[in-house]
Specification:
The protein is an all-alpha fold. The protein is 76% helix and 0% strand. The longest helix has 32 residues. The N and C termini lie far apart (62 Å).
């Protein structure tokens, strides 16, 4: 079927799949990298977020994503697209949330000291 709705669904759902696979890996890698800088973790995370926003904007602009999303909003509604976005990109949402938590200073290297299987399972050295 080559109707506009199915074409737009294919483009938008392909973008969501790309976000979940590629951008989630980039966000998680940037999070772990930012934590390596200790006192500068929040600044490094903020720079990473700005870079990824610019990258995401340029990639979505090349795919004419705004036009396809507007078309799907007319056919299916905004609420449908909102829930589909979060259902199709769970890993992206978690990795982005982790990077934002580092950028805001909520997660620091000191808060992650006891986050390990060793401490959870009470293994001794």
């Amino acid at each position: 079927m080559n109707d506009p709705q199915s074409l737009s669904e294919e483009v938008v759902f392909g973008w969501y799949s790309y976000l979940d696979r590629v951008f989630s890996l980039l966000f998680f890698t940037a999070s772990i990298t930012a934590l390596q800088f200790g006192n500068l973790a929040d600044e490094i995370a903020t720079i990473s977020i700005l870079f990824f926003c610019l990258l995401g904007y340029s990639l979505s602009r090349n795919r004419n994503l705004k036009r396809h999303i507007a078309r799907l909003e007319r056919y299916k509604g905004r609420v449908y697209l909102f829930f589909i976005m979060w259902l199709k990109t769970p890993v992206f949402g978690l990795s982005a949330l982790f990077l934002v938590a580092i950028a805001t200073g909520y997660v620091t290297p000191n808060t992650l000291i006891d986050v390990s299987f060793k401490s959870w399972l009470n293994f001794q050295d």
